[in-house]
Amino acid sequence: MLSRLVLLQFRSHSHLELALDGRPVVLFGPNGAGKTNILEAVSMLSPGRGLRRAAAEELARQPGDLGWKIRAAVTVDGIGHEIESFAAPGAARAVMIDGKPAQQVALGRLMRVLWLVPVMDRLWIEAPEGRRRFLDRLTMAFQPGHAEEVLAYEKAMRERNRLLKDMVRDAGWYGALEAQMAAAGAAISGNRRAALARISAAQRGATAFPVPEMRIEGEGPADLVAALAEGRARDMAAGRALEGPHRADLVAHHAAKGMPAAQASTGEQKALLISVILANARALAEDTGAPPVLLLDEVAAHLDAERRAALYDEICALGCQAFMTGTGAELFEGLGGRAQVFEVNERGGVSAAPG
Questions:
Q1: pLDDT, tens digit, for every residue of 147-162?
Q2: What is the rounded CA–CA span in Å between residue 56 and residue 275?
Q3: Which of 22, 60, 193, 283 has the most CB atoms lying inside 10 A of its own CB?
């Protein structure tokens, strides 16, 4: 749970500070006021590039060249921690936990952060890459070390791809890299399958949202070392590896209607995504004893009143500290006094509103 959030020179906010009490957080105001920037700042308290996948230099307030910093006070298992995520001008992002330098993966072990943003509304109909990232984010919430396995796999694959493009034919150059890819790939696939099974189990009979039946396709052969060795000539022609977990796809069906998620209506596709995020949160709460932080950008805009009420009830039942944005406070009336409500004005100022 976050109890304090401070942004310094981050995106549109030169200085912003929020005192939080653990309830869901509503941020409402006009488009362009900086609501999503606040959610993005919270996403930077987890490993990776955040909900916009922005480079560190893109996060600094413009104009200027001052770098940026996010400070947060969080409580985990009753113990308070101070987190800083920051980047000096021209430098990579750095992390401090309780005043000591830390790796990004340590953030994933300290707190779990899940998000749903408007660009993800097309998840079921876009290219597989977006669904793989979505699946890996869900998986990392259960296994923070999953991020390290993905990085190890991608590093070895990049080096192998370089050999392929340089038309290197000596098998001795490939063996170690292919063994690294296979070891990391097996861990990636195992982590993904375990996360998906856990999420699917947490959906049964526990939500008012439509349940998707999900599976992973195209992970590659079980013996990836042999497949990579046998496929070098084909991969050399393509200039890249054509088999492995980097080619996997997350496939979903609307269970009640028996149709692919990609063929469901826009509203149903959004509801399926919400269902997955809530199931992930439910499973994490059961497994770790603490619900994750949810970042739900413009989540209520395309939901009818009944679905909005169902969403708020499930969030509150889970005890999630969910950060939700919208253009008007009326979208969140179903929360009543169960949320902290802040108005974000066009100058980026934030003020508490009744709630």
A1: 999 999 999 999 999 9
A2: 31
A3: 283
> pLDDT tens-digit profile of 228-273?
999 999 999 999 999 999 999 999 999 999 999 999 999 899 999 9
- Taking only the tens place, the pLDDT of each residue in 294-337 is 999 999 888 889 999 999 999 999 999 999 999 999 999 999 89
Instruction: Determine what percent of the chain is predicted with pLDDT higher than 70.
Output: 99
Domain membership flag for residue 168: yes
Question: For strand 25-28 and strand 340-344, is the pairing parallel, antiparallel, or unpaired?
Answer: parallel
Label residue 354 by pLDDT band (50, 70, 90): low
**324: β partners:** 26, 296
Percent of the chain with pLDDT over 90: 86
279's CB contacts (< 8 A; 6+ apart) are 199, 200, 202, 203, 206, 207
Structure tokens at 211: 């349940």
CATH number of the domain that residue 195 is part of: 1.20.1050.90
- Whole-angstrom Cα distance, residue 178 to residue 171? 10
Work out how many domains the chain is built from and give that number: 1
Residue 27 domain-assigned (yes or no): no
The reply to whether 220 falls in a domain is yes
Cα distances from 158 to residues 161, 186, 189, in angstroms, run: 5, 18, 19
Range of the domain at 212: 122-266
Residue 340 in any domain: the answer is no
How much is the CA Rg of the chain, to the nearest whole Å? Answer: 21
